[in-house]
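retry 2 of 3: previous attempt timed out while embedding cytidine-5'-monophosphate. Reduced batch size to 1 and resubmitted. Inputs unchanged:
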Amino acid sequence: MDIPQDFLNTLQHAIPVIKKHIEEGNPISIITHNDADGIASGSIISKTILRLGGSFKTTVEKRLDDQVLKKVLDEKPKIVVFTDFGSGYLENIGKTFNEQDVIIFDHHLITGEKPQNVTQINPLENNIDGSREIAASGVCYLFAKTVDIRNRDLANIGLIGALGDQQDKGNQKSFTGLNTFIEEEALSYGLLKKTVDLIFYGYETRPIYRALAYTTSPFIPGLSGREDNCVAFLNHISIDIKKGDKMRCLSDLTEDEKKRLFSALSNHMISQGCDSSSVHDIIGTVYTFKNEAPSTPLRDGREYSSLLNACARMNRPSIGISICLGDRNESIKEAEQVVDDYRRKIGTYLDWVREKDRIKELSSIYFLDAGFEVDENIVGVIASILQGQGILKDLKPIISAANSNDGTIKISARGADAIIQHGLHLGKIMQEAAEQHQGSGGGHDVAAGAFIPQDKINEFIKSVDEIVSRQSTI
Ligand code: C5P
Ligand code: C5P
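retry 2 succeeded.
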């Protein structure tokens, strides 16, 4: 796979801008998005600047609103770099930073005209599918490598955002498009290994009951986050968790044991209301990061990405950035604690959702109003899990809402891939409905979000339901 020339050209445009400010000794202000892709992206750009001899400050933000932009402006930067967001806010960025240079590395929906002082690198401008074929971390990696070939050691981090944004939607949960270009590079540099198997975190490194319990994508009801239940489950199907004194890993199981495990898991998931396609999600391409120590959660690409996501969603993004920048000591221990708390939180939220009929079915959407019961940072993860488990029987998107402490409501929308064939683009729908009710929204076709004032929730949901009804051919 080759990189389209026009996209390569846009990568080139950002280099002189960054180099000029480094030569002038100006610190570079990097603002990145609060999820795995954002952390990986911000880290790649930070490392690139560091290696060029420049200085930088990396800040992680949940959203880009006027308040955040003003806070950045107050620090009087000469250059601001946005990673994994920015393209949806071109007008406000242009207005706020009219005397600064701005660079945006993004893969989200582009809204409005690009102001003169903004260099935008977004694959959507070059007709590359930014929702499926490359994430912001991939864009940042390709930029880093264009700056200096030695940055190719960052190829695995370039793939982490794609895993976090669920772009592994090819055959056997593999990558497609430009992500395969990055993957081929990582393989050829000896950084990556690919196998097809059960995709539990820690395939060759963790005791099997723990690998099962640690896996949150897909989220297996009753097993994810529950080591005790996993031990009982394996006992029940006569799979030994130990051989002699040594704990067995997934890679130690015989083919027959793996088949037995898959079949028992399928039955378990179906009995919990999951559909057959989510059951198939437990088999796929395992991405092993060969440059990471086998005993760490960074060895498995999906687990690394979940770890960054947990740090972001639990308000500890700096731990994730330290790890991407190379810290392999304290940060790993701290991150493991954060992941533990995160997993437990998700389990509690899912129990809350399942405890009663919390998900309402409207004409064209499902609606989950979580109020203050679910953390606004995690409501999107819950929507993704609910969508991905196949427990929503109709082909309708799920819109979830959580109250934010700042008086707004955080909305997360998720839909099955098939909704696109029925004419829906959730990012555009969120944008349209939010604008009607004094909010702002955007995102991808199958995963999008918005922020709206708290008193507008009922009208907003009504609008979303109407727009989906009007646009959808379902
Ligand atoms: O901001 P960003 O693009 O990085 O976030 C996309 C979000 O949507 C991620 O949380 C990802 O897990 C989710 N997603 C999803 N289903 C998809 C694609 C993305 O839930 N098919
Ligand atoms: O926050 P959540 O994971 O639900 O976001 C889903 C997608 O929608 C992400 O790609 C996010 O960047 C995007 N989004 C957006 N504008 C918002 C809220 C979310 O573009 N106001």
